[in-house]
UniProtKB/TrEMBL annotation, chain A:
Protein name according to UniProt: non-specific serine/threonine protein kinase
Alphabetized UniProt keyword annotations: ATP-binding, Kinase, Nucleotide-binding, Serine/threonine-protein kinase, Transferase, tRNA processing
PROSITE patterns: PROTEIN_KINASE_DOM, PROTEIN_KINASE_TYR
Coiled-coil residues: none
InterPro entries: Bud32 (IPR022495), Kinase-like_dom_sf (IPR011009), Prot_kinase_dom (IPR000719), Tyr_kinase_AS (IPR008266)
Any Pfam family hit: Pkinase
E.C. numbers: 2.7.11.1
Residue ranges occupied by any Protein kinase domain in the UniProt entry: 23-236
PANTHER family: EKC_KEOPS COMPLEX SUBUNIT TP53RK, NON-SPECIFIC SERINE/THREONINE PROTEIN KINASE
Similarity section: Belongs to the protein kinase superfamily. BUD32 family.
Primary enzyme class: transferase
UniProt catalytic activity: L-seryl-[protein] + ATP = O-phospho-L-seryl-[protein] + ADP + H(+); L-threonyl-[protein] + ATP = O-phospho-L-threonyl-[protein] + ADP + H(+)
TrEMBL record, chain B:
PANTHER family: TRNA N6-ADENOSINE THREONYLCARBAMOYLTRANSFERASE
Alphabetical keyword list: Acyltransferase, Cytoplasm, Metal-binding, Nucleus, Transferase, tRNA processing
Natural source organism: Coccomyxa subellipsoidea
Cofactor mode of binding and number, as noted: Binds 1 divalent metal cation per subunit.
Keyword presence, Disulfide bond: no
Protein name: Glycoprotease 2
Subcellular location: Cytoplasm; Nucleus
Residues noted as binding substrate in the record, renumbered to the chain: 131-135, 163, 178, 182, 267
Chain sites annotated for binding a divalent metal cation: 110, 114, 131, 295
Length: 236, 336
């Protein structure tokens, strides 16, 4: 995910209006699929600056529409999720013009890295997976889905608490279908990135079931969604 | 050196290819079943088409390669996924040839065939693969002896969406509906807003297809869009979705290179959009042209050869075919 190059700073400055923080004075941390993440200081606080960059491959009309709607959705969802008690970074400032969000810098590493490095004890790993289940249940019960639940979008802080990030594809919904698809995306992320570690997802699901008030319709739907993948071997 | 003869016929193309142990393609003839405008291809008629052409194609492949049946070391055929009737047709011919020539038979997964063909033709080492065709839409990356599916369509394939849209406009199926959409789209100017459905690393096209099937007639009648505008807008929208999920998978697995395979993969606009994205990430795009993107016999012969060299052969009584056969079910024994 990390793609450190000095060029990133200068090209994105040409494309967008100057953001409040001069991005060239910040450090480019990583380039995700649709945004560049910078580290800087805003009003004296260590800050993450997330700038959605233009997708040159996309038709500009389509690109503007998607970029703006995802920016808005991310901002609204961060605020809403925090109200529900879901740990997210604190939002500092939003610049629509430059498609940039300023938020709290969370000290920690991604859950993906934590699981892959294998430094966690079995007990710590179990606790982490249960926490993921609890947090996702909290989000879903509050009428939201994340839309892109992967282990890259979860951070593990130094005190082993969990923080959810990247709400660009989130939406407000109470439909079991949407929640089930959210869980399915997470299951697939585990199957693809953590296949070697065994059935980690089962722990998450058990914890989700325990913590969600509405687990029954969601998990019934989830069983249906799992069957949907194309060209699966089926009997009958 | 060992030679593999591969037979492919999972959809409306039937092809026979002969590939040498070192990956050289000696011959690769194929024949396409083309239906009238406004119609798709049905399993029964497609199977009959394959039956009429397959023996001639085997003879042509041997002749073009300049080899004799005695030179062939193994027969590879498409085990699945695909349409039942056409698959069975090819499997029967493969079994017959294996018995006649007394060589082993090897069942090959069609999707793995596309991936391995793309890798040998382009020289891509470990790319993220976008496999897009009439029956499949998957973003794949290799890990731990499997081609794992990171993202895919949750309903219809992108090629199916394009083909069925071509029927709405009554475009010709010769050489393929997708090709004719691509040509017409070059004249399009206006972008019509369409549903854009990306869910995590998955995409959905059925809502988009319903929308355009419903809206096309009215837009055309009122003069709000030309057929070219519709083709242009459809391509821009669905390809943007595909490039987006590919980029998500790349960010997720930290891989810089992309390989596009499958019939839709020869669309130059898709290749162009993907190339822009990949170059922004500092990687390389590997793509192939219609000789290898579109279903062909060599793409089955080559993975057959790879499996053969590992001693993986299919027993005659197991040489069945199946319409459902996922990419990640195959254990990839020939890669580290």
């Amino acid at each position: 995910m990390v793609c450190e190059n000095g060029e990133g700073a200068s090209t994105s400055k040409n494309i967008f209006d100057d953001p409040i923080i001069n991005l060239q004075t910040c450090q480019l941390l990583s380039q995700g699929a649709e945004a560049k993440i910078w580290e800087g200081v805003y009003l004296g606080r260590p800050t993450i600056v997330k700038q959605r960059f233009r997708k040159k491959y996309r038709h500009s009309t389509l690109d503007n529409k998607l970029t703006l709607s995802r920016l808005k959705q991310e901002v609204r969802s961060i605020v809403r999720a925090r109200k529900l008690g879901v740990p997210t970074p604190v939002l500092y400032f939003v610049e629509h013009e430059a498609s940039t969000i300023y938020m709290e810098l969370v000290q920690g590493c991604s859950v993906k890295a934590a699981l892959l490095e294998g430094k966690l004890s079995d007990q710590e790993r179990h606790a982490l997976l249960r926490e993921i289940g609890r947090v996702v249940a909290l989000l879903h019960d509050g009428g939201m889905v994340h839309g892109d639940l992967t282990t890259s979008n979860m951070l593990l802080k130094g005190d082993s608490s969990l923080v959810l990030i990247d709400f660009g594809l989130s939406s407000n919904t109470t439909l079991p279908e949407d929640k089930a698809v959210d869980l399915y995306v997470l299951e697939r992320a585990f199957a693809s990135a953590h296949a070697a570690s065994g059935n980690l997802f089962d722990d998450i699901l058990a914890s989700y079931r325990q913590h969600s008030r509405l687990w029954c319709p969601t998990l019934n739907k989830f069983a249906e969604v799992r069957m949907r993948g194309r060209k699966r071997t089926m009997v009958g | 050196m060992a030679l593999a003869l591969g037979i492919e016929g999972s959809a409306n193309k039937v092809g026979v290819g002969i590939v040498r142990e070192d990956g050289t393609i000696l011959s690769n003839p194929r024949h396409t079943y083309i239906t009238p405008p406004g119609q798709g291809f049905l399993p029964r008629e497609t199977a009959i088409h394959h039956q009429e052409h397959i023996v001639g194609l085997v003879q042509q492949a041997l002749k073009e390669a300049g080899v004799l049946p005695a030179d062939i070391s193994c027969i590879a055929y498409t085990k699945g996924p695909g349409m039942g009737g056409p698959l069975v047709t090819c499997a029967v011919v493969a079994r017959m040839l294996a018995l006649l020539w007394k060589v082993p038979i090897i069942g090959v997964n069609h999707c793995v065939g596309h991936i391995e063909m793309g890798r040998i033709v382009t020289g891509a080492k470990d790319p993220v693969v976008l496999y897009v065709s009439g029956g499949n839409t998957q973003v794949i990356a290799y890990s731990e002896r499997r081609y794992r599916i990171f993202g895919e369509t949750i309903d219809i394939a992108v090629g199916n969406c394009l083909d069925r849209f071509a029927r709405v406009l009554n475009l010709s199926n010769d050489p393929s509906p997708g090709y004719n959409i691509e040509q017409l789209a070059k004249e399009g100017e206006r972008l019509i807003e369409m549903p854009y459905a990306v869910k995590g690393m998955d995409v959905s096209f059925s809502g988009l297809l319903s929308f355009i099937e419903g809206a096309a007639a009215e837009l055309l009648e009122k003069g709000e869009a030309t057929p070219a505008d519709l083709c242009f807008s459809l391509q821009e929208t669905v390809f943007a979705m595909l490039v987006e999920i590919t980029e998500r998978a790349m960010a997720h697995c930290n891989a810089p290179d992309v390989l596009i395979v499958g019939g839709v993969g020869c669309n130059l606009r898709l290749q162009e959009m993907m190339a822009i994205m990949v170059s922004e990430r500092g990687g390389r795009l590997y793509s192939t042209d219609d000789r290898y993107c579109i279903d062909n016999g060599a793409m089955i012969a080559w993975p057959g050869m790879l499996a053969f060299k590992q001693g993986q052969i299919t027993e005659l009584e197991d040489s069945t075919c199946t319409q459902r056969f996922r990419t990640d079910e195959v254990e990839v024994t020939w890669r580290e």
